[in-house]
Amino acid sequence: MYIQFHSSHPFAYIVGGGYVIGLKNMTFDALSESRVTYLDLGIKGNLTFTWKCKRFSRAYMSVAEIRIDETPLDNCSVKELSRGIVQLSSVMSTDLDYAVTVTVHEGSLERTFTQIASITETGPSLAINCSLNCNDKVAVSSKLALVAWCQSCVPGDDVKYDWHLWENLNGRYERVLMSTENQENDTTCNSQAFNVPSFVLQSGKSYVVTLFVTIANHTKHERKIYRKIQTNTPPTDGVCSVSKDTDAVTLISVNCSNWTDPDDSLQTFVYLYETVIRRNLTHGIDDIVSIVYEGSESSIADVPVQAGDPVFGYNVTVRVRIFDIYGDYATFVKNITVVSTEVSSESFDEKFSKYNLSGNDIQTLNFIGAAASSLRQLPYTDSTTKEEDVFRGVESIYIDDTDGGPEIINYQQRVLKLIRLVEKIISPGCNNTHGRYNLADIQTIYSTLDALTRYQPYLTLEAVNTTTDILKTVIGCLEIETVDRPLSTTMLDKLTLLAKVFHRVLDNTLNKMLPEKLQNLDEELSEEDIRSTIIVQTTRFLQETFLLKKTQGNVTLDHHLMNLRASFLFQIRSHERSKQIKQRELAQRNIPCIKNILSVFNKIMENTIALGERLFLNGLHVLEIMIRKVSGNNLSNTNDPFFAGLYQRNNSEHHYSYLTISIANFLRNPYIYAENASVATSSVPVIKIPQNVSVDSNVPNIGKPVYKRYIPLMNPAYSEKMIYFTFDLINDEDASIIYIKPDGFDKTSQRNMTLYSFFFSSKTFPKATNFDYLKVLGVRDWTDYGFKVFLPGGICRKGNCFLGIQPHAGSSSVKNLLSRKKRAVSNTTTEEPFGNATSLEFMPVEANFSLIFTTTGCRTWTDDNNSWTMEGCTVLPMSDLNYTVCRCTGNTFSSSFYIPPNVINFLTVWGKFDASNASVYGTLIGVFIIYLVAVIFLRRQDRKDVDQWAVTFLSDHTTSHVYFYLISVHTGLRRDAGTKSNVQFIVTGDLCDSGIRVLKDRKTKEFSTTSVNKFFFGTTEPLGDLLYLRIWHDNSGLPGYQSWFLGKVIIDDLQTKKRYFFYCNKWLAIDDGDCTLDRIIPVSAPNLISLKKRLSDETQTQIPEHHLWLSLFFRPRQSKFTRVQRISCLLALSCLTMISNAMFFRSSSENQNVEQVTFGFLQISSSTLYVSCVGILISTLPVLFASHVFRHINNNIKTKQKSSKSKHINRPYKSNDISVSLSDVDTDVFQQEDDKFPHWIYYLAWIILTMSVLSSCFFLILYSMEWGSTKSEEWLSSFVFSLVESLVVFDPMKVLIIVISFSTLLTNWYQERAPNINLQKLRKMSISKGYKETNISDLTNYVLPTYDLISEEERADLKKICQEKSKAKSALRNIIFFTLYIIAIYLISYFERDKRSFHLKQNLDNYLMFGKEGPSAITDKKSFYTWLNETFIPTYYPVNNYASKPLTVVDRQWFQDMASIRVGPARLRQVRMKSGSCKYSKLVGTYPCIETYSELNEDQSLYCLEWKSYNESICGTNDYKNRFYTADSWKYTKASDIWGISRMGEYNTYSGGGYILKFVKNRANAYLLLKELVEHDWIDRKTRAVFLEFTMYNPNVNLFHYAMLLTEFPEVGGVVTWTDIQAFKPILNFSSLGFGLVMAYIIVLCYYIFLLFKILWNCSKFGCITYFKEPWNVVDCISTCLAYSCFVIIVVKMKYTSTAMNMFYEDKLTGANRFINYGHIVIWDNALNIFFAVLVFVSTIQILKILGYNKRFTEILAVITNARKDLLSFGVLLAILLIAFVFLAYLLFGSRLENYKSIYITCGSLANTFIGKNKLDPLVIASPLTAQFFYMTYIFFVIMFMLTIFLSILNNSISAVRADTAMTLDSLGILYIVKDVFRRLHEKFLKFKKYEKSEETTVRKEINAVNVMTLIRDIVTIYGIKKLELKVKSNDNVEEKCKQNYFSSLKLDSCDCHDLVKENNDEEISNNKHISRFDAVSISNIDAKLHVSEDSCNVHK
To answer: Distance between CA atoms of 1196 and 1060, rounded to whole angstroms?
Structure first.
């Protein structure tokens, strides 16, 4: 390998630059600025100079044009004054320019520089100096900084500058427009400095900067000067590759090759290797740049890099920048993933030793940084109680002394170790030697420190101390590297990167060092002082309350509470104080060092900015840095957020041409070690300015004061009509700033008058005759924040300051007109006063107002005694809420800005009560009224529950029953599930059965919905293990109470403690379900029950129990959780929901970007829904606790039961022969188990509920007073939604979780156990309670079960009627739901198709499309250009209005109608075809032909102007593009690049690409573009179509309209025009939709979600083939596909729209002029319209399906279905005939008539004959002979013959359908069902008492002995004794028959055969005794054949 070294050329430069203006005696100095190399400042070496001089014609310069003639006229001579300095010696003329060229020699190397001098007789000398990027070639990647230099100007001169930039285009100079949007401060084209940002200039170009200067002193001088600029070309053509490896940390290797310099192939490059990592930091997201290596090597290997951020997927961008000698660079970028893998301590030590021994410090530092970035960031928060929590009323506090725990401490030690290693590596620093660390190395050091200090919990004070030492060492290296050296562009770039990371490291260090809120460490912390402060503040506030016309009431000082709070605050502050003492010691050592570091850093960075520029490093946590260079002549006009003004002192004689201002602004006080450090409460700016310049510093205030609103209350005890206030001053000499903002004040509508007088006093409340300071406010005193009152310092001393505000009454005439009510007062920030303008005069004496109190004072820091002082400081009156403006001596300032605390005043707040604010008050009152009424009603229900839960024996119980069971009957959760019919049952065991038993006791009247009825029943002997339960009823209940939905039956064997479950979940009814009145249910084992059945059972069980809202009405089981307790829990839930919503609620004015939908008083938004969800989540927890306690509490049950007996239960129930008590079962029979909680928890639950209600209501009222009526009404929406969510979301979710848990995971644990019964007492009770042997049991067994008297035929008829009713109900439901859907979809289709779209399109047509000047006038190319020139451009770019008055710049952005604004530019798009040889060349010779347009063969070539072949060297240059406006219009653009889509025209279909001309933003340039197109023949023979496209927006109707004019130039000649204007609404704005429309969208969405699931369910159940055989199912599937297609199109359309709108907004910000193609959005909008229209059509057709239940509509559909085969045959025949006639007509008339020019149009023309629109005359004119024959033939065969056949087919089908329908019986109609519903409602509610009386009579007959004997007599009379005996004798046959066929014919009502507990064989069954019981069933005419349900299963042996 050979290495060739090249010596650097010397740097040549003449002071003043390339062009100067001077006097005749001016000198040319090349010695001062020339040097051996560009970077070696001041090194002259052995430089020698040779000079040349030539005369030139003076350059012509004006604002519009410049001409520079570089042809020399002759030579001139110079004389050398000294080495490198010459002067013109020949005769000089003021009309010529002199070019003086110096050649600087360094050995054999040389470099030249030419300066052109313009000689003037008088006036100042002028030159353009360069301060940055000043090499002989300008780097385009860096900014260029130029400064105007006037040698003889004095500070008093009025100098005006005008800079222009020109580009050299082959000797012609065109002006380059400079954007000033991103220029800061005074770096504009009219200032002394002229800065060209990076990448504005183009590489390899020549430019000229001109400067026009006007100098006005005693005389006016105008000067013109220029400077030539040659730009450099950066490296090109290279590539780089990146690979990574892992060795403890991630290592990267980069290899670059083939990079070359286009201007110098031998030039060497500098490679800068960097990583860019996007990190989510505490101050926000930032891109962190770290330099890993810099050098001339084109590759690096195994360099450690820091890990990426997990938030951004560990992405790391590897960036390589290749710099040439001028500082221009090329960039290579590649993204890699660097995962954070923590390095263990052992592995780190091993690898560190390896890196350290290598001697490569930078590589070692990279390794440390990579290891630090991989440390795991453990979450850490200081758990110490905050002072705010103490004032909120916490009962205890916690002091966190753990420092985060052992893991955090371990990481702190590791970070400290790494920081010390960094210190060890870089020690002892640079030692004043240049070159140890270059700028890239220093940036690497800072990047390593950044990784180590980034996570604050790992940073200790010791680590901060070490970091400061490192920063001190490194800043020295940085100073050595940059001092006394000119900044190259490469150094400028690296310094910019270095500044950012330096700022972050220093900010992290200060953030750990400085406390957020500094205590006064000069005074001892005393608990007594804290207590005294609290008492003084509270007492003073009570005094203010009294003066505000309020009495103290019962509010007193709670000294116990104050002592407790003082103790808490003392502990918290002591803990914080110990930390701040350590921080103070650290700051005292390091802050002076940090100030010196910042001073050096600012000095270095001053060289990186140009005159007029401003460098600002914004505050991350603590530190802000600002550096700025300003012109000395422009000090008074210099504005900046950090200072209010700059001025030179009066006694200063020195004036600066420019000066540098550097500010280090500490957001926290860095001088915490000062004696009085706590007085500085704001940020601390340290300003460095020249000594003779003073500054008025803007000290940013810390804190955000908020307006507090007041009512103008005046105490009548005082004669002064003033409103009194007091506020605190914490320091002497502090000034006060008070803002007042009256409600309803409008400055624009008020005359100038006095509004308020402010009286201040330092000792007591002021009076009009006794005050210290007075300020009178008038209308003209209004500021942006309100009326400001400035109280100078010294008026009030430290302590209390007293204020009296006296509002003025205003004019009496106005006062009589106004009768204003006091508005509600709020503590929130008031609205701007310009919001509610009124034409009436403002009345201050009656207006509510808002106040802000602040105090502030200026302080300056003195280094001599390390303290803050007020000497020499003044607070200026221009101070406001954001800044305190201080005028002080020194350079370090702060302020004592203070916001007096606001304490909630519980006395005056009730003065804000506004009865008109009914949203909150009315809601609270309504809730409590509902609660009280509900409590009264539910208390009665609780008493009834006690009666219902009393368990007694069945009515057929006898004393012979000695074996006892407990039967629990669960009625299901269905509508009308309960029954009042007589229910009987038989229980069968493996030993015997129970016989027929009556399921009723003496108190039970019905089995109500969700009820659980329990009964004792006994048998004479054990039944054994229970097998089956047969249960039925006689259907004898009242209307509405006949059917019964049985959930399950549980029977407990009280002797063996076994429990048997019989699951039914079916109807026992003849009009519902399977129309069966009896069921045989097998026993089910709990562990064998199917999951489906368990879920169903648990759902019915848990919904009435755990759904608080439903449990008020359905309380099925015995529970300690009473209904009153449930309603109380709901009251607490409602109140807690109110206050929790109020805490999080924000009004619509506070949520500006949230869309709302209003419905009545409800306002719905995403914020409302979010607040409601949060509110109900917070409110549910205490209610769940209370509910759980009430369910399990030991609530003195025995005592309550005794009282309940005495009051309610011991009511005798009388009959004719028996009198018993309802308390048949003694409470001691059930042995109670111990509850889970002690009894005192019961009272705790009530206390929690009570406090929740009271506290919530109290604070809610306070909130409402703060809000006002508007916000309260918005809050009501969130409260309503919270209750709805609780009802329909959270409680159902809670039930669902419980059901799933108990049905799956907790099945065994939650299984309810059998009750614990005292059998001895039960037996005793069964004998001693007065039960008599009445033989009711025998009578029931053999006589009473008469429900089966209905015959089999009647049963079948009833079942059929039931099925018809079911179908009718289903049809009615479908009609209701479909009606809702069809209304919803009609609403959407009506409102979403804006009817104003047509008028919008018509308006555009009237302007552009219609009339003589419209597209119809376009007949050739010339007329097309004419239309563009005379119609389109004047209309599209309006200049004057209708009155011929010129439009403003803003108005010119609109269309001619001033109703629509242009959205982006318009464009012309041309599609072309290539020329080729003609097919018949004999006729035309070699003349080329152009074929018909085809997308596959279209011309896509690149061309130069006039469609010449493309030449890159000519057409591809920037010079060519800048010369011709339409240079890009001759190049083909693909459709994919412009979102293009093929479009159909009148003649052909064209692609979406083409040759595009984009219009500009103004009319003049549009004419130029069009002129250039015409001159260069843009439209020629090869042009096939030209599209004109543009988009506009009408904000009045929120509609876009996209217009396209297609002009086709077919190959046959001529022009065909076609226009398409589409109006569309691209963005769906929900806030503009009404509630009804939103609900319509929701209904449609829910409908199709349900329909989709229904289709999928039916397909899986019946199979897709079977399902789709039904035509209406196919229609459902089609409509579902259409609906979801619409949803998909909406999403796609919104996505494309969002992209297009983002591009539009981006163009508005950047000023770009891109054409944004909305055409594809229009296509999606049209697709949506088409799909939605078809969906509406199909949905409308589906009405026939719904009406198909009606017989007449069924007949109509049946006619078509019956004739489908004939119609199909007819259709085929008709199609053949039509096709034949279509082709015949096309061939006969297609070449002559427009209506027959194509087959498609011919089809339409012939179809018109069916509606009589066709005419014979045009045919006859076109072809007289054939027209009449064709027409007559067509009419005969198609119209007459085919239509006759069609009518015959329909007639035959109608006859057949009518015949079939006549044989079908009419079914129950929907009208019958509707009438039945109203009848049942009428019977249930209006005739309730009548039915109750009838029911009571029925019940008494059942147990009346006389009625029983009468019934026996009637039976004997009817049947006769003999028949009865015969029936008794027939029992044997029946029993034998049952034995043989029992198991073969018996079908069980169960869906799971595995529910059987045991299996019995035939032999065991035949020996059982239960078969004989079926004899009785047979005798009672009970059908022996049991009804089989659809889901029953066979019982196997």
So the answer is: 32
Model pLDDT, residue 1339: 47
């007599």: which residue's tokens? 1913
Q: Which pLDDT score, from 0 to 100, does residue 1073 have?
A: 65
Q: In the prediction, which pLDDT does 449 show?
A: 93
DSSP string, 52-82: EEEEEEPPEE-SS-EE----EEEE--EEEEE
Q: Per residue, what are the HEC states of 1667-1679?
A: HCCCHHHHHHHHH
Residue among 1286, 1193, 1180, 1196 at smallest CA distance from 1246: 1193
Position with higher pLDDT, 1276 vs 1913: 1276
State how far the Cα of 725 lies from the Cα of 1932, in Å rounded to an integer: 107
Say if residues 97 and 59 touch (Cβ distance below 8 Å): yes
CB 1089 within 8 A of CB 1957: no
Q: How far apart are CA 1931 and CA 1438, in angstroms?
A: 109
Angle in degrees, CA 1857, 1859, 1860, rounded to 5? 65
Average pLDDT over residues 387-408: 83
Q: pLDDT tier at 1221 (50, 70, 90 boundaries)?
A: very low
Q: What is the pLDDT of residue 433?
A: 58
pLDDT(43) > 80: no
pLDDT-based confidence at residue 1646 (cuts at 50, 70, 90) = confident
- Which residues neighbour 941 within 8 Å (Cβ) at sequence distance 6 or greater? 1115, 1123
C-alpha distances (whole Å) from 1852 to each of 698, 1757, 1774 are 99, 14, 19
553 CB neighbour count, 10 Å cutoff = 10
Please, what is the average pLDDT of the chain?
76
Residue 1539 · residue 1719 · CB < 8 Å = yes
Tell me the H-state helices in 839-917.
Answer: none
- C-alpha pair distances (Å), 1987 with each of 806, 1030, 1075, 1076: 93, 12, 9, 7
Q: Classify strands 60-61 and 66-67 as parallel, antiparallel or unpaired.
A: antiparallel
User: How far is C-alpha 1859 from the chain's CA centre?
Assistant: 65
CB neighbour burial string for 8-21, b if at least 16 within 10 angstroms, e if fewer:
ebbbbbbbbbbbbb
Round to whole Å and give the CA distance between 1877 and 1607. Answer: 67
What does the alpha-carbon distance between residue 1641 and residue 1635 come to, in Å, rounded to a whole number? Answer: 10
Cα distances from 1971 to residues 85, 1033, 1337, 1942, 1968, in angstroms, run 139, 21, 18, 9, 7
- Give the tens place of pLDDT for each residue, 1838-1863: 777 777 888 888 888 888 877 776 66
Supply the DSSP symbol for 514.
S
The sign of the CA dihedral 971, 977, 983, 989 is: negative
Cα–Cα distance for residue pair 209/220, rounded to 1 Å: 23
On the CB side of 351, CA atoms within 13 Å amount to: 21
> At what angle are helices 1269-1285 and 1166-1192 packed, to 10 degrees?
50
> In this prediction, what percent of the chain has a pLDDT beyond 70?
71
User: Per-residue confidence at 1918, pLDDT binned at 50, 70, 90?
Assistant: very low
Contact 664, 618 (CB under 8 A): no
DSSP 8-state secondary structure symbol assigned to residue 1026: E
pTM: 0.51
Q: Which of 997, 1031, 1046, 1003 is nearest to 1017 (CA)?
A: 997
CA 1611 distance to own-chain centroid: 55
Question: Hey, which residues does 1594 pair with through a beta bridge?
Answer: 1599
